[in-house]
Amino acid sequence: MDSWAHPAYRSSEGPTMTTRQPKDPNLDSNSDLLTRTSWVDAKTAYREIKKGRAFGNTCALRLRGTLQKHLFNLGCCIQKHCGKVLFVGLLLLSLCCVGLKTATIETDVNKLWVEAGGRLEKELAYTKEKLGEGSGYTSQLIVQTPKLGTNVLSAESFRLHLKAVEAATKVTVDMYDIKWKFKDLCMPMTFPRFDNHLLDSILDNVLPCVIITPLDCFWEGSKLLGPDNPIAIPGMNRITWANLNPKQLVQELKDLEIPFPSDTIEEMLQRAGITSAYQEKPCLNPTDEDCPQTAPNYHDKQIPNVGSEVTGGCSGFASKYMHWEEDLIIGGAQKNKNGYIFRAGALQSIVRLMGEKNMYEHYLDDYKVNNIEWSQEAARKVLEKWQREYTSVVNKVLNETMQDNVYSFSSISLTDILEQFSEVSIVRVALGYCLMLVYAAISLLRWNDAIYSQSGIGIAGVLLVALSVAAGLGLCSVFQIGFNASTTQIIPFLALGLGVDDMFLIALTFAENSRKDDIPYMDQTGECLKRTGVSVLITSLSNACAFFMAAIIPIPALRAFALQAAILILFNLGSILLIYPAIISLDLMRRQEKRVDVFCCFEGSSANRVIELQSRPQSPPPEYREASPPPSYRDIHRHNTMTTLGPDGVHPVTVLVGENNDGARFHSAVSPSSLPPSATSSRQCLTPDEDQSCKDRCVQTQQECCKLSLTWFAKKVYGPLLQKASVKILVIILFSVLLAFGVWGTTKVKDGLELTDIVPRETTEYKFLETQSKYFGFFHIYAVTKDFDYPNNQQLLHKYHNAFLRVENIIKKEDGSLPDSWLILMRNWLLDLQRAFDRDYQLGCITRDRWYDNATEDGIFAYKLLIQTGDSDSPINRDLALTSRLVDSDGIINIDAFYIYLTAWTSNDAIAYDASMSDLTPVPREWLHLAEEVEFLIPRSQPLTYAQFPFYLNNMADTDEITSTIKQIRTICDTYVAKGLPTYPSGIPFTFWEQYLNLRFYLMLSLICVLGAVFMVITFILMNPWAAFMVVMVLAMTVVELFGFMGLVSIKLSAVPAVILIVSVGIGVEFTVHILLAFITCIGTRNARMNIALRHMLAPVMHGAVSTLLGVIMLVGSEFDFIVRYFFYVLSALILIGVLNGLVLLPVLLSILGPPAEIIPRDNADRIQPPTPEPSPVPQRAMRTVSKRVFPGRVPSDISLTTITEEPTQYSSHEIVVHPEVVVETS
């Protein structure tokens, strides 16, 4: 007779009596089937409704039944091939991880925060197209503040400032075997070329770099200009800017009768305001041996009044084009009643370097780079290395002095900060994951039972989710979804937190099922997936859809984050539903072999004391098995009969239950604990409770202590507590107050992300940014005009330029006017020429046809310009010299010859053109005027497609001030665009801060999409809009409360907190959907269902929350204050708020307003009646030979028709056993 007939016998081990874990009747699967019917088997619930025994949501049950069927089959298949599935799954994940090799972290602000497809992106693209990438110049800043007191206006402080700036100008770096000095990289003053070797060599050496500094008010400012090697001129002293008087130098060269265009140079110097340079400025140290005799305080040796000298600003050597307004160089200035500055809090100097494109073009044909592969990339590397060395050198000045604080900052400093901020802290992530591993191991550990302990699958689950995160990021890298700060700082913890939530749910359900003897061994994994898979699908698909919907945000950094989060959630879903079941299947094998948890090499023993009289069913058996040896007379033979009330509660139903130890079963089998009082059973169990030893009692006591768990807490304490009406009222009141605080806090949230927030404290960069923001808030911006008919719209351009007078934060000249634009400078130059021509014409020096030797160079130049027609067929008309004007009475430049005049101006008034910083594109053609030449044809420049008006912004201390200024400037630009002038603003404020203009709109849009996606997914899978609405309502409250928390703790809204607000929906789903699903799948009153839901879901939700918090807690050790405040504080608050809303508020709301159960019995509010089993399938007969006899197939059944005890089988070697199936139901 087959071994299934002998409950205590195993063919592989011989006759044994095994022990098993004692069962909690309340956790018995039969009880679950009756009270949590659609959770255990939606198909059974659906059948009950169709038979008229209950009513409910048939659509949801049909869909759920289909999902459970496929999940059950999937789990059984995975368990059968667990080794193969695990190997292939890990192999695929590992292959995806290879994609991480191609990962790059994006730190370019333009590519992160500029709205994709928005106007700013188009504007930046237009600028890049016209000027090229890396054009223009970069500013390196030096700020000085006093250590003691509040005044920096002293000669000692200025001399220290001189030391710091001078140190910056002495910085050199070696790269490509070339020594690069400051003079090689700086933005030099431009001067025309005269084809005179002596003159050109003098100009090349003497023309200085542009440095904006308060030192230009004093003679010491000349020490910054060099040159390093004094210029030697025959018959004269060696020249440096410390002793150079340009006006006097030109006169001395004339006296030496050195041939050069003296009149032209004198006119240029006069027009630029280059006269005596620094020779007539006061000396900070009048005792300096090099202090010139022409200095005002040379003779009296008095220290100058620094405050009065810097009042009104300072001028460089070209006073007309190099005047630095006091707001630009003096911070925190206070003036007396006479208008003089008597106190200031900071000094600022700005050192300009060429952009990489300009530097590349500057040295493209230079002998200096002949031996290297010169490229724009090489120029960029030289500039970056020099800037880092500059920062290091200037900061040493701070270390060497105890007088004032000196801080430096370069354009590369910001890039370095963003790169450092975006770097993944391997140590921090590793420690966070280790904490999760430890927690998972401890939370799933059974201290009193090494065999049934689950630490191993907890550890494996965390490692699997971590591998899934890495694999998902690898795939994102392959798909070229860029990594950024949100990827490196949020994703590792978010994805792991969301993944381990589902892992804990499956692990705890697996532990629960393992204590149920009626689930066959080979069905364990399938049954686990069947019960938890739908919940996992809902949470994962809700989150994935939510994040995919959030990707509609056009900000690239947020879009990349949303796509990465969605992909990682799908990877986690695949790993949890496909690979993790293979892991628990292997753990089942370990249990079967009675191996110790984690340390599988060691055998263990179970700690229970209940004797198992029948072995756990394995799987639906084959039709026949080999005959087994007969059992001894000591074997126990028993059969069960059960009588219970029928569905109508009146007529009895008798069910005869057979042993069926071979594993055949039906899902409606009823345990004695789950029967109603009218049910009886003849089942008996032998338990050796008699004569317990002291050791046994200790073990029993230990087991009782170990029952103290979250499930026990939910069942005995927490659930009953929330069922009380007074507690519900208290919860509603407290959460109403919490929501009110959240709403109030949202009104306190300000927009912005200060640079000081992302820089580690106690660094020079942090102190610089703090000081610069406090005293200066300095930015350089441009008003750009595009392809446009410039000659015919000059008046519109002047009005557009003057419109910026209304912008309060733009630094203006002393008279309140704006700095001259390129068009004004060009007009003024032409007006000077026109006046010179008029004088010469009146004096008879110039006529219609010619000029005489006594004509001035400017008069001759004007004559050449006046006769230009602008017509390529007839370019010269001498009659125009007397009838036309270079500039008419309305200030409009001659329209027909506009681009010819542009050529002449940019080439011959190069200092003014360079000072205008207009970056005219296409670059105007070159033509140098020489008075002795009679060539009248002047090349015409191409029509302009790009030009810009430069402005300086000051007092831009916070985001509100910056965004207000941005709006004001944008309004001006939009107004003139409507008038036909294609224009837009450009500069760092627009690149960094314009995102805040629409951030709240996009955040709101994203949250609506995310919540809508969650609603649709839950509604579709559960077919229950009511339930979906309650989840979305709680999620919306979570977002509001988290947003309010940010306002209460002064966390500003930027892209990163916006991402976390979107994340809050995803994490909130994990805290709410599990509770909701458990609630609607239970039977009973709302109170009872709430209690059951908490009993089953409190543990996995809490474990997921705690594990996520343990991962986040490692952020508290970051050196970035931003990470601590914006990530640790906000994510911790999110987890706390999510747990409170999901485990306190939601259960109370469900107990009051919750949706009805999916199945409601018609005659019993607490449970369904034990369902009638489905008829067994028709058996397929299989033929095999055993002692020349044929045995028919046996029908798997739990029903036996007889209660007559079978005879011992050792008296017969062959027999035919027939188990008919009978279900008797009276109506």
In brief:
The protein is of the alpha+beta class.
SSE diagram, text form:
Blueprint: E1 9-10, E2 14-15, E3 18-20, H1 29-35, H2 37-40, H3 42-50, E4 54-56, H4 58-80, H5 82-97, H6 109-113, H7 119-131, E5 137-146, H8 155-169, E6 172-175, E7 178-181, H9 182-185, H10 197-206, E8 211-212, H11 246-255, H12 262-272, H13 306-310, E9 314-315, E10 323-324, H14 326-329, E11 330-331, E12 334-335, E13 341-343, E14 346-354, H15 356-362, H16 376-400, E15 404-409, H17 411-422, H18 426-443, H19 455-478, H20 485-489, H21 491-513, H22 524-550, H23 556-592, E16 610-612, E17 640-645, E18 652-657, E19 680-681, H24 694-706, H25 710-722, H26 725-746, H27 764-775, E20 779-785, H28 794-803, H29 822-842, H30 857-866, H31 880-883, H32 898-908, H33 910-916, E21 947-953, H34 959-978, E22 983-987, H35 988-993, H36 995-1022, H37 1025-1048, H38 1055-1080, H39 1086-1112, H40 1121-1153, E23 1159-1161, E24 1223-1225
Antiparallel strand pairs: 1-2, 3-16, 4-23, 5-14, 5-15, 6-7, 8-14, 9-10, 11-14, 12-13, 17-18, 17-19, 18-24, 20-21, 20-22
